Task: structure prediction
Amino acid sequence: MLSLVLTVVGAGLALGTIGYLLLALWCVGRYRAVAPASDATPPVSILKPLCGAEPRLYECLRSFCTLDYPTYQIVFGVQDRHDPAIAIVERLIAEFPERDLSLITDDTVHGLNLKASNLVNMRGAARHDLLVVSDSDVLVGPDALRRVVGALAPDVGAATCLYRAMPSAGFGPRLGALYVNDWFLASAVVDATLNEVDYCFGPLTAIRAEVLERIGGFAALTPLLADDFMLGRLVKQHGFEVVLVPYLADTEVSDDLFALVAHELRWARTVRTLKPVEYGLSVFMQALPLAALTIAASGSLVVAGLVALGLALRVALHYLVHWKMRPRTAPAPWLLPLRECLCLAIWFASYLGDRVRWRGRDLRVGPGGVLLQPSPRAARMPAAPVVIPPRRAEDVAT
Result:
């Protein structure tokens, strides 16, 4: 009797995974990651909140200084006067005197989400009515701004895009990039194919200033963990469309194995609070190891055959993602079983608590992605912001 139950459970898990992988193969196969470049080029303010110096920070930030776009400014923001990212920003300001670049240093805390607090502090330096928010670890091509801005039709409040991973050297970054490219990216394409988009992603999001003010500004995001996701949800709730632009940015993955697990566990617990039903069903995205365990107890050849088919489809999706999305990694199908086991372990662990670790702080994530439990860093009186003004060619000449 136990053998029969295990066979049924194992077959159900394997069939669920096979069904998802077939759907993912279809959605990824028809996805075209090419957005038309816009002829309309309104002035844009790009906001770059920074915290620390990632391995490729200079390369990533520099890619935004070489955009093929007529009029834009970049506002960099830090909250710590000793942040190592400051030296990199100052280097870029000196390297691109013709660009409108400035740095805001302001340690005012507006809520538990320090990235959103940073954006609140930076907002006053943005001079244009069209804003682009972008994480620090993002690398883009010269046409990125034209393609994302081109999606902002009159009824569109925000436009965002998907991203693929570029790993630093090391085993942890390689596993992290594999998750982003094969699990996250594929599932995001599936979700965007089947549902209306009501979320944004951190690598690159354009939003109209009037829409941002309508939802309460960046201050509305300071109590929340998933600020980029909730930005899109708030835009949608206020009656504006959110568009997923068929353009792929690149993001740096540099976490070692321990930091990677903490990062993905934070991500998993956040998604679980925001989309509990969908997150529960996402077990079928990584259920093959669990199905394989039932084979040892039941000895079912049927389950073994289904697991083998699931593995074959997983490998096929891996190569399809590399062909369609062209991530900056070589295919590594031999890592897929290990990566799937890690995904499954993190999925289970996400239900065992609500604590998350974010940039050295221990916090809790509550229903709706609300941050709980004050951080060790207490809010204090606002300090006068330090502004490094843009350097112009005429300034250098004098």
